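User: Earlier you gave me the apo prediction for this protein. Now I'd like the version with zinc ion bound, so I can compare the two side by side. Same sequence as before, with the ligand SMILES added.
Assistant: Got it. Here's the input I'm using:
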Amino acid sequence: MPLPDIAQYPERYRFKFCPRCATPLAVVVLHGMARQRCPACGWVHFPLPNLAATVVIFHEGGVVLVQRDIDPDRGMWHLPIGHVEYGEDPADAAIREGEEETGLRLAEPRFLTYTFGPSYGDPLLYYLVLSFTARSVGGALTGSEEGRATRVVPLTELPPLKWTSQQAAIDALRTGVR
Ligand SMILES: [Zn+2]
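And here is the structure of the complex with zinc ion:
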């Protein structure tokens, strides 16, 4: 599939001015593609996918699901997931999101698989989602500090998960694919 060009960038990536010096951006061909570059300071726009981490938490014989409390898909059950912060190891992000969303303390993050594809909220915006497993080692499944409901479901009884990244994580876990 051809890569998106500047006209196909998501709205939030369509810059008019240099984010460093506020000069209007020019379009130049660089490394074989049209890109936005600042004629004053040389800054070049290299858009990247959003990076997220999700975690399959093993707890009391099952896997922890949390209930989404914002739109879209309010009420849906899913694995803990969130954006990786700048400078943060994705494995640490998986642990942090899992702990924030469940109240448990987690350990032993292990990489499972990844998915890459358009966000379903904005098909022009790409997501790279890394999935991990982790084990609960303390804390209490009291519902999250963020106020979300949680439940524990045996792996064999997990319902299909709507988000591609999360179903891929469960599929990888079941088949042993790394
Ligand atoms: Zn500039």
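For your comparison, keep in mind: The longest strand covers residues 104-118.
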